[in-house]
Amino acid sequence: MSTLLLITSAPTSIYAWHALGLAQALQAKNQAFRVFFYQDGVSVANALQWTPDDQRHLTAEWQKLAIRLPVCVSAALARGITDQENAKRHQISQHNLAQGFELVGLGELADAVQSAQRLVQF
After folding, report:
1. pLDDT tens across 15-48, in order?
2. Domains of the chain, CATH where assigned
3. Which InterPro entries does this UniProt record tie to the protein (predicted)?
4. pTM here?
């Protein structure tokens, strides 16, 4: 059974951490899953987030999974997150998309919803 994890909660939310926990569990059981970061969930992909040394860093934890990490481009740009290509296109002086994450359109979400057997939103 394939699962789509739709992460819409900000990184400061416990739900964002629950999404990571489910992804880790699915990966450990070799179960098929995809993720998609949307709405406030795109903030996980901000490379400029600071985390105190005594706390886990959500972005780094997602990167450790070594899976595809698609992020809604419109939601990201609206929240000040961009990759190098979109920074150039929209004349933004810097880019801050965390390594391993990629900006994609909503068509990717539509495809993921259509192909998933189960959708879990956080």
Report:
1. 999 999 999 999 999 999 999 999 999 999 999 9
2. 3-49+56-121 (3.40.1260.10)
3. DsrEFH-like, Sulphur_relay_DsrE/F-like, Sulphur_relay_TusD/DsrE
4. 0.94
